[in-house]
Inverse folding.
């Protein structure tokens, strides 16, 4: 009998302990910190204090989402294994009986954080670019599905075309049953259990929470005016196909002279089309306007590569800002000029890397490696000379007889770009660049200077072949 009483008292004690762990403290009652500490690292879309709890007996998705969000905050602030601990505790306490509620909570937390990012100026591809650099494929894949779920909530007419294009580029589609929370099908597809799925969710939350606010470029999904056409006309698809063919040849050839000649021809072709489009817009009283995009750069030598992007942007009437901590260049310009810049920058970055690697490794007489300083100097010099040559190609792209009509149009567009740039970026710092390897500088300039840029003029009217 005494043993049975001891068992009852032990069971009662365990029940009381669980209730104390699961109860929600009264406001101002001085409750102890939650299981992941008491700090907060950033904006909290749930509007809760870090020591809030949830009921263990009948968990709501809202309450569980708060816990996941809190764990993500602490993981982001450096609390080791906060995401893993949260996933283990939630799984042990609620799986498998409340798997559906856990999945609903995960979707709720991710939805609110991603919505906050859209309001902070981030675009779908931007979030994907930064997460894929910092996390594994599981986390990145979960992000893509989160973007798909968010986009599906809005009528297509309220999603900007450029935004929709980015979602399509990511292949973000709702592949899971619409009547089932996403996390369950995601776990089955990846062959993992609830605990691991929750860990990946909380890890993604931690990655998203630390992202800073950016200058807005596009209205977020759901905006009534989201389908308003972006500033300016886009490049004619026939012209774009010809340019891509030229750049593809430039990237595939083993001969630097041929690669640079092909790139120069592509630049001249695109510029001529842009100038003729500008005149056409002026004839129809189309007011100049500017927009922006972000071009992400891969390591290594990100800063040196940013100089190449800036040089290409300047040659195509765009302005640029480099974000070294995130690894992208923000570009501001007229829509067609931005398309030209993005296309050429993507190709010339490939070509510059090929030319740089072809120079091999460099060491001093004492055996000390100078490869890194050589390659950095190479890329900076390459960027400098490419900018000069692209500007020359741009000057040849229009007939001097058109100057009387073209120059006022370009001046108006330049002012629109300047105004948009100043509105988006109030505080920028102009930095000079220094190089420490003369051999790298000479090699880079030579690599960008070998091609004969003389190209026969071909009229392009209305995107002709």
């Amino acid at each position: 009998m005494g043993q049975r009483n001891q068992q009852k008292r032990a069971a009662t004690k365990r029940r009381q302990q669980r209730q104390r762990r699961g109860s929600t403290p009264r406001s101002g009652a001085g409750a102890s910190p939650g299981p992941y500490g008491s700090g907060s690292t950033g904006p909290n879309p749930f509007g809760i204090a870090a020591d809030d709890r949830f009921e263990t007996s009948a968990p709501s998705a809202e309450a569980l989402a708060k816990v996941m969000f809190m764990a993500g905050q602490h993981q982001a602030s450096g609390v080791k294994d906060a995401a893993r601990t949260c996933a283990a505790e939630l799984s042990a306490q609620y799986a498998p009986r409340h798997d559906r509620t856990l999945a609903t909570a995960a979707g709720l937390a991710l939805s609110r954080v991603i919505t906050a990012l859209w309001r902070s100026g981030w675009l779908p591809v931007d979030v994907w670019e930064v997460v894929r650099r910092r996390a594994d494929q599981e986390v990145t894949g979960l992000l893509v599905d989160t973007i798909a779920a968010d986009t599906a909530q809005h009528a297509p007419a309220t999603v900007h075309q450029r935004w929709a294009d980015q979602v399509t580029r990511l292949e973000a589609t709702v592949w899971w049953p619409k009547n089932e929370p996403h996390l369950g099908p995601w776990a089955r597809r990846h062959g993992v259990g609830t605990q691991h799925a929750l860990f990946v969710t909380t890890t993604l939350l931690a990655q998203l929470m630390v992202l800073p606010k950016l200058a807005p470029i596009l209205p977020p999904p759901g905006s009534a005016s989201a389908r308003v056409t972006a500033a300016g006309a886009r490049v004619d698809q026939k012209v774009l196909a010809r340019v891509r063919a030229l750049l593809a040849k430039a990237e595939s050839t083993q001969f630097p002279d041929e690669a640079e000649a092909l790139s120069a021809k592509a630049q001249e072709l695109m510029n001529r089309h842009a100038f003729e489009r500008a005149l056409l817009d002026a004839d129809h009283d189309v007011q100049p306007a500017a927009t922006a995009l972000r071009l992400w750069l891969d390591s290594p030598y990100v800063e040196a590569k940013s100089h190449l992007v800036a040089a290409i942007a300047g040659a195509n009437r765009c302005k640029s800002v480099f974000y070294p901590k995130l690894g992208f260049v923000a570009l501001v310009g007229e829509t067609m000029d931005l398309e030209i810049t993005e296309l050429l920058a993507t190709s010339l970055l490939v070509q510059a890397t090929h030319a740089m690697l072809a120079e091999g490794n460099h060491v001093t007489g004492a055996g000390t490696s100078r490869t890194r300083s050589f390659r950095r100097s190479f890329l900076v010099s390459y960027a400098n000379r490419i900018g000069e040559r692209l500007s020359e190609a741009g000057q040849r792209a229009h007939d001097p007889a058109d100057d009387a009509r073209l120059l006022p149009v370009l001046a108006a567009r330049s002012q629109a770009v300047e105004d948009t740039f100043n509105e988006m970026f109030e505080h920028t710092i102009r930095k000079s660049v220094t190089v420490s390897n003369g051999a790298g500088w000479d090699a880079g300039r030579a690599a960008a200077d070998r091609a004969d840029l003389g190209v026969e003029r071909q009229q392009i009217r209305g995107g002709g072949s």
